[in-house]
Design brief:
The complex is a heterodimer of chains A (114) and B (117). Chain A is an all-beta fold. Helix content of chain A is 0%, strand content 54%. The chains are: A mainly beta (114), B mainly beta (117).
């Protein structure tokens, strides 16, 4: 089992819809959870971070964390064509050699069509 | 200033060349990172510096040599690379190296696109 798994894409949604991106992880001691957006040919951009169970909202983005189920998700409301990108889930481990180390999922390609 | 900068943007080098990649941040961050990213893959961690000391080396071949001259600068020295080393090289920084919380948020530079002929 991979340490961080994202739902396989690509994911295609119409403009104005809600895009739902999911991520599961294997290390129960994981501390911090991040979503990065990466446009083609560009570097990853941090768009959301979440550290405790529940929801965290920032504009059109909502991150959801459920540590008991080892699950983190990102919802994008009112999706726009400019949201078309690869979304990377990243998690930091509990400690030891994982101390401060980001582990990435494989990424989900999102396409928002007009 | 909330940016991480990297130079050069593009680099083409032969297998016998020696070159260096540079990274700079002025956010007062004390942890800096080098990642390698191949096409359609996530970034792979190479090195971590914490307070200018090398903390993590992810078993990277010795043809890659990192250096942290001061708290704002990070270099990656390249020597005798192979064509399979062609990739996007990303630098990132975070306030500190920690197991969790906001201080572990990593911010990436724009990257250096490296091609080894």
């Amino acid at each position: 089992q991979k340490e961080v798994e994202q739902n396989s894409g690509p994911l295609s949604v119409p403009e104005g819809a809600i895009a739902s991106l999911n991520c599961t992880y294997s290390d129960r001691g994981s501390q911090s959870f991040f979503w990065y957006r990466q446009y083609s040919g560009k570097s990853p951009e941090l768009i959301m971070s979440i550290y405790s169970n529940g929801d965290k909202e920032d504009g059109r983005f909502t991150a959801q964390l459920n540590k008991a189920s080892q699950y983190v998700s990102l919802l994008i409301r009112d999706s726009q064509p400019s949201d078309s990108a690869t979304y990377l889930c990243a998690i930091t481990g509990a400690g030891g050699t994982s101390y401060g180390k980001l582990t990435f999922g494989q990424g989900t390609i999102l396409t928002v069509h007009p | 200033d909330t940016e991480v900068t990297q130079t050069p943007k593009h680099l083409v080098m032969g297998m016998t060349n020696k070159k260096s990649l540079k990274c700079e941040q002025h956010m007062g961050h004390r942890a800096m990172y080098w990642y390698k990213q191949k096409a359609k893959k996530p970034p792979e961690l190479m090195f971590v510096y914490s307070y200018e000391k090398l903390s993590i080396n992810e078993s990277v071949p010795s043809r890659f040599s990192p250096e942290c001259p001061n708290s704002s600068l990070l270099n990656l020295h390249l020597h005798a690379l192979q064509p399979e080393d062609s990739a996007l090289y990303l630098c990132a920084s975070s306030p500190v190296r920690t197991s969790g919380g906001k201080n572990n948020e990593q911010f990436f530079g724009p990257g250096t696109r490296l091609t080894v002929l």
